[in-house]
């Protein structure tokens, strides 16, 4: 069965604007375009592809990466993305440690640090103590 873009949008909970954009960048094309009206038509068979695109986006792939790798995803591609995400986790953990360090120096509503100039290494050492 074929669906006009609006109906497909409702069926998949993906905005029409997004579907048009995916078509424009050649990521996700309708199965048919009426040459006279310009209406885009999508099929049930395309739902899995659209869900895959949305899943890949959720885990951090850019639309360009999805497009580039569409028929060439490998275990290495996924492991590389996983490593990127783990790196982000580590950066967030560092920020959390720094927040804890700053919190530990709140006195009367102000953050009081021993020295006015603190070198990056000192902060890292103090963060490890917390």
Secondary structure topology:
Layout: E1 2-4, H1 5-12, H2 16-24, E2 32-33, E3 40-43, H3 47-58, H4 63-69, H5 75-103, E4 106-107, E5 110-111, H6 120-129
Antiparallel strand pairs: 1-3, 2-3, 4-5
Helix pairs in contact: 5-6
Q: What is the CA-atom radius of gyration, in angstroms?
A: 24 Å
Beginning-to-end CA distance, first to last residue = 61 Å
List the strand order in the largest sheet: 1-3-2
Shape: elongated
Low-confidence stretches: none
Percent of sequence in beta strands: 5-15%
pLDDT average, as an integer? Answer: 91
> Biggest sheet, in brief?
3 strands, antiparallel
How much helix is in the residues?
Answer: 55-70%
Instruction: Give the class from helix and strand content and strand pairing.
Output: mainly alpha
Number of helices: 6
**Would you list the SSEs in sequence order as H and E?**
EHHEEHHHEEH
What is the top-level CATH class of the largest domain?
Mainly Alpha
- Total strands: the figure is 5
């Amino acid at each position: 069965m074929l669906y006009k873009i609006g109906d497909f949008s409702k069926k998949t909970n993906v905005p029409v604007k997004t579907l048009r954009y995916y078509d424009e960048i050649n990521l996700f094309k309708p199965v048919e375009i009426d040459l006279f009206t310009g209406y885009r038509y999508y099929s049930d068979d395309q739902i899995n592809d659209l869900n895959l695109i949305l899943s890949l986006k959720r885990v951090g792939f850019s639309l360009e990466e999805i497009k580039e790798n569409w028929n060439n995803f490998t275990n290495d591609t996924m492991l590389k993305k996983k490593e990127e995400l783990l790196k982000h986790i580590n950066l967030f953990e560092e920020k959390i440690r720094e927040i804890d360090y700053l919190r530990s120096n709140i006195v009367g509503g102000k953050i009081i640090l021993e020295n006015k100039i603190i070198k990056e290494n000192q902060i890292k050492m103090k963060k490890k103590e917390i």
